[in-house]
Amino acid sequence: MVARVTISATIVMLLVMTFRLPSGFLGAIFTLFLSRENLAATFRSGFRTVIAFLLATAYTAVSVVMFIDDPLTHFLWVAVSLFLSFYLIHIFSDYGTAAAFGFMIAGAIPLWDETTINVNERFENTLWLCFVVAIGVVVTIVVEYVFRSIHPTTDLTEGIEARLQTVEDVLRSAGEGRPLPDESEKRLSLYTTVGISRLRRLMYRSDYGAHFKAQMTAAIALLGRLVDIAGSFQLALHERTSPVEPSDGQRCLRLAEVLAGFREDLVRRQLPRDSQLPAEEEPSNIPFLATMEATAALIPKAYSGSVSMQEFVVAPLDEEGPTRLFLADAFSNPAHAQFALRGTLAATACYVTYTAIAWPGLSTSVATCFITALSTIGSSRQKQILRLGGAFLGGFVFGMGAQVLILPYLNSIAGFTLLFATVTAISAWISTASARLSYLGVQVALAFYLINLQEFTIQISLAIARDRVFGVLLGLISMWLLYDRLWVRNALDEMQTVFARNLELFAQVAEQLIESDQVKAILKIRQLRDQINAGFQAVTAQSDAVLFEFGPSRERKMQIREDVRRWQPTIRTLLQVQIAAAQYRTQRPLVALPEAIAGALVAFQKDVARMMRIMANEVSEKPAEPAPEIQASAARVQEEIRRYYEGSGEEISPEASDVIRLIQTLAAILSPLYQDIHATFAVPREAGNALPQTT
Predict the structure, then answer these.
(1) How far is it, in rounded angstroms, from Cα 656 to Cα 659?
(2) What's 308's DSSP letter?
(3) Which among 289, 339, 413 has a CA at the least distance from the CA of 83?
(4) Residue (of 668, 648, 645, 666) closest to 657 by Cα position
């Protein structure tokens, strides 16, 4: 990724310098913004960016002509344009497209304030803003196309290979009697949480034939089931006190070798070989091992068409729903207008300040307000700190440092290219980090490009760097004084709200497991898993933002933050167990089970849903009813299953044993989680901290 970004940005720089293209920094910076999920996604992202810039250019050309002559109307045009930009970024379903529109407006405002050139030149410079971004988009797409031609491995094959490798690691560690490495444990938790919806979308959007798509989609569905069951398998190993029997260890290693063969076939672009595994489940002393063998045995058969797996692959994209241009409440929720007004006031204050003191170099303050505007105080301050750090590194360290120590000794484009590529690689490397730090890399690149990619020669004036950084400081001060003081919603409240919503969504997952319409339930569970995964990410982001909030209640905020961060892995484990239970339900729907067992399972899942909603109310600090006895409910399911098999004179099947284990695990995790949450919000000072480690 770093190499592709660096190559794209460097090519744009060479085109800008060679053909003397104005506003070249925008073309270079957008090579960092465009998606690189696959070639099609990169093209769509680039196309939307260009369309957004074209619309912003048309808006600027039409509107500014009517208001440019009079200072008052010109000021009103600036305020309205800023309000529109902030409003769009909050109501658009595609954040990147709205951000592109705002970038164009933020770049056009200082151009039309320039009084030393005539209107024709200002209009021409506005068109260059759009054109240079289009150049950056085209270069990025070409680089991606060449890269995919040389390195044909796609996100689809990498996603499949990584999941096979993770399950293989789990099996090898079990077979060899050693603990699973932390990295493999993290990947297993990740893949059981996110599911395979992204892989299904990538397959659907690929250029494979329809028949092969159907085969691959079935195989991917089975792979997703294999990963989900592997998560429960690993959890059972954690709870196991005795060592794995040699016979079971050999079965684990044999299955690991089969999955390794699948990976090799994938790398060679061949169909998976016959697994030589039994399709029927054989009893094992390790829960879920027999089910994993049976699932792996079905994967090669998906390509022969000998097995029907429609229950796994019906309408694979239905969980996405129809694509919306705007959010559902875009024109009814007053929070969107409040957000836009807060951002507009902060940006307008910057505009008035640098215009009043005749310091146009501070125009980066407007862009700073636009870039750092988010929906909560904490996340906004986090962006502001990273923006300031990026401006310091890119402006003072790399920008001014290069002007003083490096550029005076360069006399050709080759030397500057080497410097530019080095700084871009560092910025791109930082931007590929986690969400907590990636924004810093973009800001480093932006500050450096603003200094060294505005003119078509080596920049010898240190005042340029000074003005850019001071402009950033002005924008941050304005955001702190205005944006953070109006209609604020602190990050802790947002974190609690999202965490409570995740618990409510989990309750809906439990309810779907007792739905009679199996196909509808599977599709709904896919939707819910994606929504819960997005909620996990939102909670993590808001927990980071709490660190940047201060005040008399900070100590309690930090305590609740630590509690929520401690509960997150437990909720992930609960989701992992429930998804594995859903996979079993696809094989044996409730109508196919004995009435007593089906009734006990329905009662258990209703208790799970009820307990989840009670915890959601606790987290939201709403009145909550007493929780059901989840352990007793799980024991009733186990008793009904044992009673049925005793009455039939048969041994409990591996599938039934796995279901018992899943229900026991769910109850064993859920009960102390409820007690901990109840203690935290009922008596905050005596919050429990004894929740067992489950992941």
Answers:
(1) 5
(2) -
(3) 339
(4) 645
pLDDT at 209: 66
- Collapsed DSSP state (helix, strand, coil) of residue 92: strand
- C-alpha distances (whole Å) from 662 to each of 296, 475, 507 are 20, 53, 17
Strand partners, 92: 326
d(CA 199, CA 517): 25
Contact call for residues 372 and 364 (beta carbons, < 8 A)? no
What number of other Cβ atoms are within 10 A of residue 358's Cβ?
Answer: 6
Residues 6+ away with beta carbon under 8 Å from 52 = 97, 98, 100, 101, 104
User: Using the 8-state DSSP alphabet, how is residue 653 labeled?
Assistant: P
Residue 203 CB contacts under 8 Å (≥ 6 apart), including other chains: 156, 213, 216, 217, 220, 316
Angstrom distance (rounded) from CA 693 to CA 686: 20
Rounded-to-integer distance, Cα 95 and Cα 52, Å? 11
Tokens representing 427 are 């910025």
Structure tokens at 45: 């992202």
Q: How many residues does the chain have?
A: 695
| Contact status, residue 13 vs residue 24, Cβ threshold 8 Å | yes
664 three-class SS: helix
Q: How far is residue 187 CA from its own chain's centroid?
A: 15
Helix 210-239 vs helix 554-587: crossing angle, to nearest 10: 120
Cα–Cα dist 310/306, whole Å? 12
Residues 6+ apart with CB under 8 A from 293: 251, 255, 277, 278, 281, 282
At 303-312, the pLDDT tens digits run 655 444 343 3
Task: Identify the segments of the chain with pLDDT beneath 50.
Answer: 279, 306-322, 684-695
Residue for token digits 């994967």? 299
Distances (CA, A) of 613 to 358, 494, 626, 633: 58, 18, 11, 17
How many separate helices (H) and strands (E) can be counted in the chain? 26, 0
Sketch the domain layout of the chain as residue ranges.
Answer: 2-152+335-485, 155-320, 504-686
d(CA 246, CA 175): 8
CA neighbor of 373 nearest in space, from 86, 32, 108: 86
Question: Contact 12/24 with Cβ under 8 angstroms?
Answer: yes
Residue 324's Cβ-count burial label (10 Å; 0-12, 13-18, 19+) is: exposed
- Three-class SS of residue 326? strand
Contact between residue 649 and residue 658 where contact means Cβ atoms under 8 Å apart:
no
pLDDT score at 134: 95
DSSP H helices, 151-181, are: 155-175
- State whether the Cα torsion 437-443-449-452 is positive or negative: negative
Instruction: For 559-601, give the DSSP string.
Output: HHHHHHHHHHHHHHHHHHHHHHHHHHHHHS-GGGS-HHHHHHH
- Distance CA(379)–CA(540), nearest Å, equals 11
CA-CA-CA-CA torsion for 142, 143, 147, 152, nearest 10 degrees? Answer: -30
